[in-house]
Amino acid sequence: MQTAVGLLARRDHSRKELETKLVQKGFSSEEIAKTLSYCDDSGYLDDERYAKLVLRSYIAKCQGTLKIQQVLIQKGVDKSIIYSVIEASDCDWFELAYIKCLKKYKDNNPVDAKDRAKRTRYLMGQGFNYEQVSFAFSHNPDE
Asked: How does pLDDT run across 110-127, given as a tens digit for each residue?
């Protein structure tokens, strides 16, 4: 119990992440189940709150929804929670893709097809879908 609360005092964890850490520390499955139940009941452990924190963190890094989904799935957060948190977000993902493009390349106009493909791969690797990437290239804030 003390180990779990100590871990959660440092930062939020998903339920699955905390369970994995407790298993690595050698606790029995019975102890882990009781501890996770206690942490849930006490409000120390909340996958939705954790997903919102991760979402805000990745938005601040200009990462797209696909990247955020991937990270949260790896952390063991339920897909329904992931989708509801992303859906509830007020982030303009198209504008975020544009900002990420400007941060990396200083402009949003690829020089040629090879440059466009390179930029497209980069932005898609950052979690943006093709429509968001296309918007980033065609967006002109002066219009």
From this structure: 788 999 999 999 999 999
